[in-house]
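## tool: complex_structure
## caller: assistant
## args:
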Amino acid sequence: MTRTVYLKEILEDEKMIKRRIVQNNFSGVLITFISSLVVVPLVLILFYLLVNGISSINLDFIMNLPKPVGESGGGIFNAIAGSLIIVAVALVLSVPLAVLGGIYLSEYPDSKTAELVRFSNDILQGTPSIVIGIFAWVLVVVPMGHFSAFSGSVALGVMVIPLVLKATEETLKRIPSELREAAAAMGVPYHRVILKVVVPTGLKGIVNGILLGATRISGETAPLLFTAFGSPFMNVNAGKPMSSLPLVIYNYATSPYDEWHKMAWGASLLLIIAVFGINMLARIFVSKKGGR
Amino acid sequence: MNKDIFMEKGFKVILKSAGIVILMIPALLLVTLVVQSAPAVKAYGAGFIFRQTWDPVREIYGALPFLAGTLVTSFLALLIAFPFSFAVALILSEYMKEGVIATILKSAVELLAGIPSVIYGFWGLLVLVPLIRKLELAAGIPPYGVSILSASLILAIMIIPYASTMAREVMSMISGDIKEAAYSLGGTHWEVLRKVVIPTSYSGIFAGVLLALGRALGETMAVTMVIGNTNKLFTNIFEPGNTMASVIANEFTEAVSDLYLSSLIELGLLLFIVTAIINFIGRLIIKRFEIKGAGK
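## result:
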């Protein structure tokens, strides 16, 4: 009698173990399957960009100015130049401030001010780009009385501060304190320790952060809608409205003309090549020669 | 020597003032928005949030359709994105930390995060929207194509990287000891995940969801391009609508009257406050998790 009970229990146990193994395998397969689906939209987006974009990209597209509706051809040279100018000015405005702020956070990390700076920086990072656009509009466009590339740069500059600041802080924080102590032990004042030891050691990480920040803002559209505004003409004057790649993509994409859609595909492909290209460069740059 | 001390102090002052300037930016941003939206706040008070009509011609501004649009698209996007983000986080932190598949998945997530939102919008408008229109025709629903649903789908793709990265980081922070303890009791991989890893990382997963929500609430371009931009309150997710961000993007340059402009800026203010609170809570949770993780 007891024997059969034992047998039953053993059988039950085995059944349960089998069930658990099946459950384990099934969940593994399911999780792998679901996560692999994430690749699908990426592949689709890149596929459409390549197929539709490649035919519109040629030298004329890159070197010419846009033509009016109805006329075929025309390029987006003004937008490419505009993007470069707006992003460059944005970086010039924000990078020094953000790097100094990042050094402050890593070298004087525990003060009350540092805590508050970190908090504000996080808030700024989470602020929707369109809100920052409004900010730049009030700050620059309203006093100037008209849209300008400069106001767009201010908006993008505000957006890139949190990224560069965080990259700087994280990089410098990871530099071993022995390095600082060794320099300090030789009687070097702290500001020279920072300038001659800490910053040069972390330079790679900082530059990497700036590059990544640049790719982030070069794809931004929303804060430029009512700051840089866009322009069909060639313009290098930052005090006037200026076009940019994301802006032309938006304008062409939402137009009803097939011809313009083609231009938008081309511009999108260019933008994504630029964004991914700089991203990759930054990565290679860091991985070369033992990045910390 | 005195010169050195002076320089050192001076340098610290420079660093600190850079910090203080950065500290002032969000404060200044808030003040700017409050001041600029004051006329609308004065004119409508709390009714602004609850009124259904947004009619620039008659100068009646109510934000309800946009509040609803923002909330519905964001939460729907979270709902769609969550299983995928969660699965990706599990794969990358527990199943395959290295290897070809992990590398592909990791790069895919990073690339998704790197695609500019205007390109998501453009792709959505020319590829996804026609597809949805076809499906709607087949199902016998009015074939708008551009709709709350389309916006949510695009948003879902866009926020997967944010939710999954945070969850992954938190899961890989869990110390091996407690996992090994569970294995030594005879747990299968799945049981260890379900009973140890996932419960331990609840707060981190939640923080990731909050950060992704913050992104979704403020996302502008992609949503603007596929949501249809109507200021009427939608009755189901297959109808077009508008979000706070998309209505600002659409109407800001056309706003001629002061009250119109001020109402749009009030939408921006609401958006800023909501995203700030959500991000604040999210980061608070992460910070507590990091301290706890480091203490182990």
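## assistant note: Residues 49 and 178 of chain B are 48 Å apart (CA to CA). The longest helix of chain B spans residues 2-44. Handing back to user.
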